[in-house]
Amino acid sequence: MQTQSIVYRPIGIIHSPYRDVADMPIQPTGATGVAGTVAVDEKYQEGFKDIDGFSHLILIYFFHLSRGFSLQVKPFMDDVERGVFATRAPRRPNPVGLSVVRLVRVEGSVLHIEDVDIVDGTPLLDVKPYVPLFDIRQDIKIGWLADRGRGVFHARADGRFRS
Questions:
Q1: Highest-confidence segment of 22-26, 48-52, 89-93
Q2: Which of 18-22, 81-85, 101-105, 151-155 has the lowest mean pLDDT?
Q3: Which letter, b or e, does each residue of 93-125 get, where b requires 16 or more Cβ atoms within 10 Å of its Cβ?
Q4: Residue 144 and residue 149: Cα distance in Å, rounded?
Q5: Is residue 97 part of a domain?
Q6: pLDDT digits (tens, 9 = 90+) for 43-89
Q7: Closest to 79 in 3D by CA, of 143, 22, 148
Q8: Which range, of 21-35, 119-133, 136-150, averages the lowest pLDDT?
Q9: Domain residues for 103?
């Protein structure tokens, strides 16, 4: 495999009520109604044309507080070690996260959003519209989460992925 450096520059910052990773929801489903904003650099504002026609957005961001990674982790909703790629744990070889959030409104270069499960100050890499026709799949399997998935509504981060 050829090694190549990849450099991304944030296009904005995600703001939320969560100043610390401890005790925050671990997925947007557990953050229903939690308000936040995405402040995008004004030079990208033109890219928001037509975005207000979408109810939900996919935010792609950098886990800026994550240091190092482990290939085996104990995810938030389990006490058994799992392969990191079978989890959504933040300590990954490339610490990139994604969340599907509700778009409330657009004001200039600021997106007002809800269902935010992201720590305040997180660098935003990209925004994409959530399109059920493209993004929902049928006949899915959810592996080890099959008997634990419902716990996401109440699960909170507990500091296990702090550096």
A1: 48-52
A2: 151-155
A3: eebebebbbbbbebeebbbebbbbbbbeebebb
A4: 9
A5: yes
A6: 999 999 999 999 999 999 999 988 899 899 887 767 889 899 988 88
A7: 148
A8: 136-150
A9: 12-131+138-152
95 falls within a domain: yes
Asked whether residue 42 is assigned to any structural domain, the reply reads: yes
Amino acid code (one letter) for 66? S
pTM: 0.83
- Helices and strands in the chain, H and E counts: 1, 8
| Residue 66 is assigned to a structural domain of this protein | yes
10 Å CB burial of residue 161 (0-12, 13-18, 19+) is buried
Using alpha carbons only, what angle is made at residue 108 by residues 105 and 113, rounded to the nearest 5 degrees? 30
CA distance 53 to 130: 11
Q: How many domains does the chain have?
A: 1
- State the CATH number of the domain containing residue 62: 2.40.30.70
What CA–CA distance (Å, rounded) separates 42 from 119?
Answer: 22
Mean pLDDT for the chain overall:
86
